[in-house]
Design a protein that fits this description.
Elements lengths: L8 H21 L6 E17 L2 E19 L2 E8 L4 H18 L18 E5 L9 H5 L7 E17 L4 E16 L5 E8 L4 H18 L9 E7 L1 H9 L8 H5 L6 H4 L10 E4 L18 E6 L2 E2 L6 H7 L15 E3 L9 H5 L2 E14 L4 E14 L2 E5 L4 E5 H7 L1 E4 L4 E4 L11 E4 L2 E8 L2
Parallel strand pairs: 4-6, 8-13
Antiparallel strand pairs: 1-2, 1-5, 2-3, 5-6, 6-7, 8-20, 9-10, 9-12, 10-11, 13-14, 14-15, 14-16, 17-20, 18-19
Length: 454
């Protein structure tokens, strides 16, 4: 559903919370003997602005929400999803119809030996207010700093909500107000500098400074391209590139189910191998970027250490995995990926990055990452956007895109020389169907002899 730009987000969220709770009460009151139910709400009220060539091309407000329900009975589970309009009469009729449909579907489904019934893990309510630009202020805030350059991107801001109720009596509510700016500056050659800016409070000075840094990189991109031959090079990964590498651990790395099934890229750590003592990775929910509760309503600890000084401290475990493998859950997501990852900083000063790199590659961004050998911890991918050749601490030229293939046991192991002493928040900018929550807090990485293959 959509509304006019004048809709008040605070009023919308208050109305949603009231209607959601009334709708959940109605569904729970209509359960039959032996039935268990979980109810989830996901919604947003977002101001979007699309920009191209330094001009506003599209601007508007989208208000959208959906309900997902999970009915469990007789060792079987059925799911349904439908739009949440905020009109109790409309939503109630649809919800009861969907509940009845699930009852008809259940007998046709196979039994699940590892089914997890709803429990009451305790209730919670978290609401984080932001200081965001009003919709009519955005263009005036963004455009002056990018006049004279080809600035293309998308800005999105506003509240996002997640909620959970179940038949065991548990209820959770999470709401946060955030903004994300995902942009590129494009050089006449067609090369681009890509960056993001995100948070709960708009800072005009921080935005202007970041744009100036991007423009400086853009000017270097107009130099002749240097072709780098395949081989091993000293390499600096900027925080956005670090986020891509660490993010791969959410796909068959830190999952306990993947570990148990023999497919984890970190399996060697459980066998006694270690990574660099410089490396500490954790889930940090105290940042307030995402809800601590998962789809089952389990509530994660504020912090879950995953790697501590290069040693495996924990994997991510949800209730289903815990039941199947007789281990303890730490309220991980359904696919046991990281939701609020943080890599702790090191001692490398930002001002010293180029000097410490010396001669090698400065990589701002990576893309197309995949496992080339997951059980061996090998990752492949490509360089992208503002990536440069550096000689004796000086940026010399942009590079032609390279493919890399290396083992995390190397570049996060003995070859990891240091991490920057500052971190950057790298937001999740996906908008497939809805704005995404959260992101990662990452330093830069300085690696010796990183392997490039093409």
């Amino acid at each position: 559903m959509s509304t006019s730009v004048g809709t008040n987000p605070t009023e919308t969220l208050a109305a949603w919370e009231s209607t959601f709770n009334q709708l959940a009460d109605l569904l729970l009151d209509n359960l039959q003997a032996g039935e268990h139910l979980s109810i989830e709400l996901a919604g947003e009220q977002s101001h979007f602005m699309r920009l191209n060539a330094g001009k506003v091309r599209q601007s508007g407000l989208v208000t959208d929400a959906s309900i997902n329900i999970r009915l469990i009975a007789n060792q079987r589970t059925a799911y349904a999803g439908f739009p949440f309009t905020g009109d109790l009469a409309v939503d109630s009729a649809v919800a009861l119809e969907q509940l009845q449909q699930l009852r008809q579907d259940l007998p046709q489904l196979p039994e699940d030996p590892y089914i997890v019934l709803p429990e009451n893990y305790g209730s919670s309510r978290e609401a984080y207010s932001g200081q965001l630009l009003a919709a009519d202020q955005v263009s005036a805030a963004l455009l002056p700093a990018v006049q004279g350059v080809d600035f293309t991107g998308i800005y999105a801001s506003g509240p996002i909500v997640r909620a959970n109720r179940n038949s065991a009596g548990q209820q959770h509510w999470f709401a946060t107000e955030t903004f994300v700016l995902d942009y590129s500056l494009i050089a006449p050659s067609g090369k681009a500098v890509k960056a993001t800016l995100a948070g709960q409070t708009w800072d005009q000075t921080a935005y202007t400074n970041q744009i100036q840094q991007s423009i400086t990189q853009l000017q270097v991109l107009d130099r002749p391209v240097k072709v780098i031959e395949p081989g091993q090079y000293r390499t600096y990964f900027a925080p956005a590139a670090t986020a891509e590498l660490i993010g791969m651990l959410s796909w068959g790395g830190v999952s306990e189910a993947s570990m148990q099934q023999g497919g984890s890229a970190l399996a060697k750590l459980r066998e006694g191998k270690s990574l660099s003592p410089h490396l500490t990775l954790k889930e940090n929910f105290s940042l307030g970027l995402v809800p601590r509760f998962n789809s089952l309503g389990e509530v994660a600890p504020e912090e879950v250490p995953l790697l501590v000084d290069g040693q495996l401290a924990n994997t991510l475990v949800n209730a289903r995995t815990a039941k199947e493998y007789q281990v303890k859950s730490n309220a991980a997501s359904g696919h046991e990926g990281m939701r609020s990852p943080e890599v702790l900083p090191g001692t490398l000063s930002t001002a010293d990055i180029l000097a410490q790199l010396g001669t090698g590659l400065y990589l701002s961004n990576l893309h197309y990452l995949n496992w080339s050998d997951r059980t061996g911890g090998r990752i492949t991918g490509m360089t992208r956007y503002a990536c440069f050749w550096v000689e004796q601490g000086e940026v010399i030229a942009p590079i032609k895109d390279l493919r890399f293939d290396d083992s995390l046991y190397e570049f996060l192991g003995a070859k990891l020389e240091n991490l920057t002493d500052t971190q950057e928040f790298i937001p999740c900018v996906d908008t497939y169907g809805a704005r995404s929550l959260g992101g990662s807090l990452m330093p830069g990485l300085l690696v010796n002899d990183f392997t490039f293959t093409l």
